[in-house]
Specification:
There is one protein chain. The chain has two domains: 187 residues, Response regulator (Rossmann fold, 3-Layer(aba) Sandwich); 127 residues, Rossmann fold. The chain is 44% helix and 17% strand. A hairpin with a 4-residue loop joins strand 11 and strand 12. The chain is α/β, with parallel strands linked by helices. Helix 8 packs parallel to helix 9. This is Leucine-binding protein domain-containing protein. Keywords: Amino-acid transport, Signal, Transport. It comes from Afipia broomeae ATCC 49717.
Length: 390
């Protein structure tokens, strides 16, 4: 009889526990896992390291504020190592092993393109701090992918606006032979005619280039008014040094891929006086008080410098915005993967981030306009806001 009563009591306890689990609110859990796959090693580490810092900062702030519904947020990180293969491996590990709710990253357009099929099949939202428009278009085939970074189309439009103001009529382009560089080339080809400018010469360079004087000489011979340089990594700095060696007087205007401290430190004085596309956060102190990024950028820069001892670059700002969007999606939903995706597409309206003012829709997973970029001029201290932007 005693054993029968014990068994009955045990079974009632098990049943009660099961009912308690079922009765928990949807999405309730001990931790909310957010994934990040960023290039903290390899050729794009100058992007991935500050991005990783920014995501860690966002998650730390969320936990210091009490987490979400009293539960801790856990950041699960994988190094995508600046290669497509490692990005795919990182995505699969985050999705299948860590069971993350959403992913921030990767750092490069090529890596993001490689991860698109993985997150699409698994139905996990991926927010990529990259430039390439192919990552999010066509939207019908990219419904799980968002690009909270300034796209190559916006960067090229900014360059063409500057060309118009400067009176340049003939442009040449020097681009890296990778997904990022080719995206800039394609956007230039698409937008140049409507800007009243001709694209008279195209030259490319591989990622391991150490001498770009031959390409620069061809652009000079073409008689272009200015050279648009759209690339990543060490060769981008070599362009300016080679131009000085050639005593090239033709202006070189850079896309936003060079708007980072690694590039600025590598190129030194060779870039002083040249225009470069960048984000408002890089020159936040010069922005007018009415600018929507003024206060949020000041806050982000202050907190980032206090924690990491250096100022953030624009790509850190994109990663910070991406992480905070995911966190807000979890707060305002039950925290399921599909709910996070739907929240991003339907609820990110006039969202003021460090990067810009976001408006995601079912037709636009980029969400930014041209005012998310500014034109800067390189100076001895870094860069300053172009006069006409003030």
């Amino acid at each position: 009889m005693r054993s029968a009563n014990y068994l009955r009591t045990y079974m009632l306890a098990v049943a009660a526990a099961a009912i308690a689990v079922v009765a928990q609110p949807a999405g309730a859990q001990q931790t909310y896992k957010i994934g990040a796959m960023l290039d903290v090693t390899g050729g794009a580490s100058f992007l991935g390291k500050p991005e990783h810092n920014a995501v860690m900062l966002a998650v730390e702030e969320a936990n210091q504020a009490g987490g979400i519904r009293g539960s801790k947020v856990e950041l699960v990180f994988e190094d995508s190592k600046s290669t497509e293969t490692d990005t795919v491996l990182a995505a699969r590990k985050l999705i299948n092993q860590a069971k993350v709710l959403a992913i921030v990253g990767p750092s490069r357009t090529g890596g993001a393109m490689a991860a698109v099929p993985i997150v699409t099949e698994a139905e996990v939202a991926m927010l990529c701090p990259v430039s390439g428009v192919g990552v999010i278009e066509p939207v019908a085939e990219r419904k799980w992918v968002f690009r909270p970074g300034q796209g190559g189309d916006l960067s090229v439009a900014k360059v063409l606006d500057y060309a118009r103001r400067a009176g340049w009529k003939k442009l040449g382009i020097l681009y890296s032979a990778d997904a990022y560089g080719e995206d800039g080339r394609d956007n230039m080809r698409k937008l140049v005619k409507s800007a009243g400018v001709s694209l008279d010469r195209e030259e490319s360079f591989p990622a391991n280039s150490t001498d770009l004087k031959p390409q620069l000489a061809k652009l000079k011979s073409a008689g272009v008014d200015a050279i648009f340089m759209h690339g990543l990594g060490a060769p981008s700095a070599i362009v300016y040094k080679n131009a000085r060696e050639l005593e090239l007087a033709t202006p070189i205007i850079s896309g936003h891929g060079q708007a980072n401290s690694a590039f600025r430190n590598a190129v030194g004085d060779a870039v002083i006086g040249q225009p470069i596309v960048g984000a408002p956060v890089l020159v936040w102190s010069e922005l007018p008080g009415s600018h929507p990024q003024k206060k949020v950028s000041e806050s982000f820069v202050t907190k980032y410098k206090a924690k990491f001892g250096i100022a953030p670059d624009m790509f850190a700002g994109v990663a910070y915005d991406s992480a905070n969007m995911v966190l807000q999606a979890i707060r305002e939903t039950s925290g399921e993967r599909a709910q996070i995706r739907d929240w991003l597409e339907n609820k990110v309206n006039n969202y003021v981030g460090v990067t810009g003012v976001f408006n995601f829709t079912s037709q636009d997973h980029g969400g930014l306009k041209s005012d998310a970029l500014v034109m800067m001029i390189a100076d001895k201290d870094g860069w300053r806001l172009a006069d006409y932007e003030k």
